[in-house]
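P.,

For your records, the input lines for the assembly:
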Amino acid sequence: MREKVSYTAMKFGTQRDTEIVNRHYDEQLQGFGQRVMDWMRQLDGESPYQVTRLEHCLQTATRAEQDGADEETIVCALLHDIGDVLAPANHSQVAAALLAPYVSEKNHWIVRHHGLFQGYYYFHFMQQDRNAREQFVRHRYYGACVDFCERWDQASFDPDFRSQPLEYFEPKVIALFEREPKSMF
Ligand SMILES: [Fe+2]
Ligand SMILES: [Fe+2]
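Structure tokens returned:
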């Protein structure tokens, strides 16, 4: 049986207990890329669009690659809507949090804010300000996030677009999550 900690409340924990937990944590991290792939597969269901949410993500990533984006950016494009599975009400934040330990500050910022920036294309149909993203107009990644939405995200609802399959991106996803994660307690 797997080694267990000695405590029933954490305040009674020991050095050895912490080592047991950390060994488990390291094992969990190793399979993380595969679990991310499983969550992506959950996007392959009903959607109001002409494509599934998974297909939207595949198109977004395929367009990023066709535009010459680097591997990290391609994976961010693929995963930008992964939050739809767990947290439809704040999907940008969830995707950004998942990626944060593994990606640049810039890519994190773009994923974190893409939902608001995408609002440019439909907020005015909901009596909301389509230009709400302009609160960030002076931010150094504003232009990059506008481009992410215009060139890749908003364009990727096309049933006739030929996207790469999820398996094509799998090695890139696995490689990203094999990076040493930044500690973010
Ligand atoms: Fe999104
Ligand atoms: Fe999207």
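Two observations worth noting. The chain has one domain: 16-177. Residues 15-30 form the longest helix (16 residues).

Regards
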